[in-house]
Amino acid sequence: MPRVLSETDVADFRERLCDAAERLFAERGPDAVTMRQLASELGVSPMTPYRYFADKEDILAAVRASGFNRFAEALETAYASAADARTRGSAVGEAYVTFAFEHPHTYKLMFDLNQPHEEKYPDLVAAAHRARGSQTDYVKALVEAGVIAGDPEEIGQMMWAAAHGAVGLELAGKLPAGTARSLLRHMNGAIARGLRPGA
């Protein structure tokens, strides 16, 4: 008779499976990874993962949701650690780049991959929404402080596009190591100057 699993048992196994999946998805691409390979990675029977996840898409959604939440947490922590709107903006930008280069596989799974029917995975939708919010909260503070003027959502998207572009190019080897960090500072500075009240 199978052992009855506690909530802790389930959570621990899901976490181990997601860790293995993230590594394999990054190394081989999600399409090349099978449930059997994931089970083998953990030394369990091929059917065991199905006790915790419906299928591979469910695992991929969980991996990506975890990535978005960790990313958002890093940016939220940076935001909370700074004393004023200007330094918050700089801290968030620094945290963005740091996360991307410390967790490049996670970053790519988050942003370079689109899952069909993402709306079927509410945890993923919520995590992605949280990450998106982390891109605009610091901009709202800059607008409220009178440092820049404009629609915080639109400006946040511009800043995010600049950050993602610079990071993506460096991760792809199209820019020398360290370029994204300095390029992002210059781009954000130029955007901010153009958005100053009365500019």
Characterization of the model:
This protein is mainly α and 199 residues long. Helices cover 70% and strands 0% of the residues. It has nine helices and no strands. The protein has helices at 7-28, 35-42, 56-81, 85-102, 104-111, 122-134, 137-144, 152-171, 179-194. Helix 3 (56-81) packs antiparallel against helix 4, helix 4 packs antiparallel against helix 7 and helix 8 (152-171) runs antiparallel to helix 9 (179-194). It starts with 6 loop residues before the first helix and ends in a 5-residue tail after the last helix. The relative contact order is 0.11. The mean pLDDT is 91.
Please give the radius of gyration in angstroms. Answer: 20 Å
- Unreliable spans are none
The helix content is 55-70%
β content, as a range?
Answer: under 5%
The SS-based structural class is mainly alpha
Secondary-structure element order, N to C: HHHHHHHHH
Number of E strands: 0
What form results from the Cα inertia axes? Answer: elongated
Q: Would you tell me the overall average pLDDT?
A: 91
Put simply, the count of helices is: 9
Top CATH class of the largest domain: Mainly Alpha
CATH topology of the largest domain: Tetracycline Repressor, domain 2
Q: Report the major sheet.
A: none
Distance between the termini: 73 Å
CATH homologous superfamily caption of the largest domain: Tetracycline Repressor, domain 2
Tally the structural domains.
2
CATH level-two architecture of the largest domain: Orthogonal Bundle
